[in-house]
Request: fold
Amino acid sequence: MIPTSNLSAPSSPGSRFKTILWVSLGLTVLFVFITSELLLITDYPMYHAYRLQVIADRHLLIPHTVAGLFALLIGPINFSSRIRQRHLQLHRILGRVYVISVFVGSFTGIGLAAGRPGLPGTSMQAAAWMVCTTAAFMTARNRQIAQHRQWMARSYAVTFTFVSSRVLNLWPRYWSHLGDVLSAVGVIAFTLASLLIVDLGLSWRELTTRRN
Ligand code: HEM
Reply:
């Protein structure tokens, strides 16, 4: 049972912040879906060479995409206080599906990067994804709910690097350097930045409020 003091009232600043955050994340997902995935499917000339690579990798990419989509979609459902309060069993089932999805997504992601310059970055990203998710699962099992929420926020930050790292794809300079920059250090930079932003958010109250 979650203490009521931890929950935001429907119109509290905390709840308004949550709504704005999720709407912004949703719009970013939509933008990336159109400018990266839809254009990739319709053979946008700039993505052509990458499209051939994606088609060649389809055996790994299909389970990878299904697992990644599960993780991406389960996040907002399981972060909802209302759904958690009313349907705890659903929250638990989806939580387990999320954990499995992260592990499947991580190992297929490493498989996709194997033999390419992106392997070290992807391995580090996958490790961060699995460590944060395992910590979230263990804290949930131990009923350490405050820590569980924090680890889930970190885990979802790594899930979201799939979206954030593709926001600039349509910018030709970014795209044409994708092989070198994103593969080598870009993925690590996105992962670290996402984790830092989440941790700053989690400590926001302590950072901005002086104890008497
Ligand atoms: C929301 C979660 C995720 C989804 C839905 C997802 C889905 C996809 C899709 C559709 C592709 C091929 C098309 C494209 O590149 O846009 C792809 C490629 C790839 N993904 Fe993911 N993914 C997710 C997270 C991750 C994570 C966390 C990792 C790292 C462990 C990863 C590693 C890779 C790799 C290495 C490729 C091959 C292409 C490349 O080198 O960029 N993915 N993913």
User: Anything to note?
Assistant: The chain has a mean pLDDT of 91. The chain has one domain: 13-203.
